[in-house]
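sanity check this:
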Amino acid sequence: MERIESVNNLKIKQIAKLHTRKERKKSNQFLIEGFHLVEEAAKSNIDIEMILTVNPEKLNEVIVENSKEQFEITFKIAEKLSQTEAPQGIYAVCNMPEVSNIEMNKVLYLDRIQDPGNVGTIIRTADAAGMDAVIIAKGTVDIYNDKVLRASQGSVFHIPVVEMDFAEAKDLVKGKVYGTSLDNAVDYKSIEANEQFMLVLGNEGQGVDEAILAQTDENLYVPIHGKAESLNVAVCAGILMYHLIK
């Protein structure tokens, strides 16, 4: 296995650029960090260009067999590539998957949600709940952002996530479209579970765009029984998904 020792190595400099959305989009690649995420990517048949690790002896068969190249790196390089306070010393450069022929029976639509922790948690919950896909609107945080990937705990590799405008998504969905709002909305418990639906969740501060809410079949709210002003969007997403799924 080839060893890279300099933080100024051209390959390392190029990989470090994947911390930016612009470079990820340009190269059609993204960087993942940490043993769990790397192993999940390998198990999920993500196209892994290379593995970089401080500890080659810890690479298991699944990771080696499902990556094209492996490199040993120094801890200094690991620190350069890391976006966490305590680097685990293992990274993978992956090619973005092509998503096609998506089932559109149970779909989540994210309208301009910008907190990466929220988006990652929502994707993880959608995966756990058995949703078919997560669709993101323009203005939603990049799903290959490091914090989104970590919050998703690998679920971003299990469930299709695609960018699409609302009109296109609405045309593809077979069932009812539910928005989320505090105004002109009904208690979610009054809606029965369904085999086909699209649930729309909105921006943390502004909620779902009014133009979208005007096109939904029904808008739902989760009642607040205490003194909190609002529910976190990821928590709301979990409650509604598990209620709506039949």
User: Anything to note?
Assistant: Residues 116-129 form the longest helix (14 residues).
